[in-house]
Structure formats: C-alpha cells, structure tokens
Amino acid sequence: MYKSAKYFKPLLILVLVVFSVNLYATNLSDELLNIPIPLISGASVSLAEYKGKKPVYLKFWATWCQPCRKQMPHFEHVKKEHIGSIEVIGINLGINDDLNAVKEVIEEFGLTMPIAIDKNGDLAQAFRLVGTPYHLLFDRNMNLIHQGHEANESLDNKISMVSQSKSVDLLDVGLLSESELDIKLTTDDGKTHALFFTATWCDWYLKDSRPEISKNCTIAQKSVNTFSRQYPNIVWNEIISRLWTVDKDLLDYKEKYAITQPLEIDKSNRLFHQYLVKDLPTLILIKDNKVTLRITDFSDKEKIAKLLDEN
C-alpha cells in the first residue's frame, strides 16, 4: 500500500502536466504566434498575448475593396456583440492605402476594433493572404478554426460558439503555409534588370474608388511595353500580383495590352514582399542584387526614359 502511494503522486503530477499542456496546446508556429501586429494607435499586439485567454478574429481589408466595405457593418457588429469574449482586430493591407484613407473608413463605419496597417506586408505574407476580405478565426488556444472571404453563416456560427467557449473543429494549420513555388530570377549577373509590379485588375477595378491610380496603372503598362522594346539592354520581367488573380486573368491581361515581355503571377508573393511593393504599379531597376531605381508615378514618360538612360 505504501509503495503504491509512493508512485501515485508523481504519476498524478505527470497526468496534470500533460492535461495542462493539452489544455493550452496550439498548432500555430511560433512565428505566427509572435508576429507583431502594429496598431495605428502606436501599440503592438500578437496572437501569443491572447493564447489561453480568449479567441481572436483577424480580418484583412483594403479601403478600396468593395466587398470589404460591404462587410464593415457585419465586422463592427461582431465587435460589439462579442465584446470581452473575442478579440477582434482589423488589418488593412497597406496596398495603395495610407493612414488618412484608413481613418476615413473607420469614421464612416464607426469602427471600434483595433486597426493595424500591414505597411511592410509581413502579416499578409505570414498568414498567406490571396485576396480581401480575408477572415481568420482562432480559438482561445490559438488553433485555426476558420479561414475564408465571406461574412457568412459559417463564420457567424463559429464566432458564436467560441465566444461561449464551445468546442469547434480545428482546421489544418497548413492552410496558412505557403505552397506555391517562387518565381526564379537571377539578378546578380551584372546586367540591369527591370521588375514591373502591377495587377491585372489595377486598371479597371480601381476606376471608381481610386481613379488616379487606375489611370496610372494603364499609363504604366503601356509605357513599360514601349520601354521594354526601347531598352533591350535591360532584362525586363513583369510581376503580377496574386491577389484575386488566376492564370486566365493573366492571359486575358496579356492579350488586352499586347504584352510581349515575360510576365508571371507572383503566386508565392515572395517578390512583392521581398521588394516591399506596396503601391501598384511599381517599376524597380536592379543591378547586382541592388535596387538602383524605384518608380511609382508614370505620368512623365520622358522623365522615366531619362532615368532609364542613366541606369
């Protein structure tokens, strides 16, 4: 009897430790748990801060994204309906956006949740964003339980359940791991390389919400078509954003503008992230792996030609 009691206590402690570990287990990587989410208030938070405390609902959006705007009342409703039981955070893409535009949307829809701007694209890259609006829901242990683009019944049901500490089926965290291959480029060969970053929807989707950007996208594409022929000594590559874009969109866009220089969708988003491209369109010149020129305003074609001559 004494011998059994002697071994029972350590066994009980081991069971309690295992139970405690499982109780707060997460399938997220340390990178995702601890990646900083810089709020426009000046503070910075991370998913790790809420682990074991309450669920987190992240939503990526853009001020010019029409579905995002339509969903804003729902977004604010979730914040107010589940205040205290779920942490709700909005993340602006930071693409063709700035603080003033974000604040205008906050005021227009009366948003009260913390808002971040993904200025360097780290958050979009880490959470594998391919289009907005983008909803991510994590339970109190920071396990992924929802990923999607619609503010629908499925999302609402899961939000309601985790707000009441009810169990929800977990999703494979592999959904947040990048599976697409990188575009292979060699930029350390002594040649000058031109990388033109744009989107197949830039010219028409932004026509009403950002007319100047839309116009700039059209001018830029036509100019790059000309420059690629005018400067054959430069190695030209066109890099297309993966946001809301599939292979058919690329083919249609290539035909629309009669593009002859190589172009490819950045399906892994590595190049957009590597070169911190946050404005569409952007032209970057690179020599020996060093950026020598960055252009976002294509209104003065002669000025750009002069810059190309100098590089």
Low-confidence stretches: 10-22
Number of helices: 11
Main structural class: alpha/beta
Would you count the extended β strands for me?
12
Mean pLDDT: 93
Round the Cα radius of gyration to an integer and report it: 24 Å
Element-by-element helix/strand order = HHEEEHEHEHEEHEHHEHEHEEH
* CATH superfamily membership of the largest domain: Glutaredoxin
CATH fold title of the largest domain: Glutaredoxin
What's the CATH architecture name of the largest domain?
3-Layer(aba) Sandwich
* Coarse shape: elongated
Strand order of the largest sheet: 5-4-3-6-7
Strand content: 15-25%
Distance between the amino and carboxyl termini:
87 Å
Total domains: 2
Secondary structure: helix percent? 25-40%
Molecular structure report:
By secondary structure, the chain is α/β, with parallel strands linked by helices. The protein contains eleven helices and twelve strands. The strands form three sheets. It has a five-stranded mixed β-sheet with strand order 5-4-3-6-7, covered by helices on one side. It has a five-stranded mixed β-sheet with strand order 10-9-8-11-12, covered by helices on one side. It has two domains: 25-176, Glutaredoxin (3-Layer(aba) Sandwich), CATH 3.40.30.10; 192-310, Glutaredoxin. Helices cover 38% and strands 18% of the residues. It has helices spanning 2-23, 30-34, 66-81, 99-109, 122-126, 153-163, 202-205, 211-230, 247-256, 270-274, 301-310; strands spanning 37-38, 44-45, 56-61, 87-92, 115-117, 134-138, 144-148, 192-198, 235-240, 263-265, 282-287, 290-295. The longest helix has 22 residues, at 2-23. The chain starts with a helix and ends with a helix.
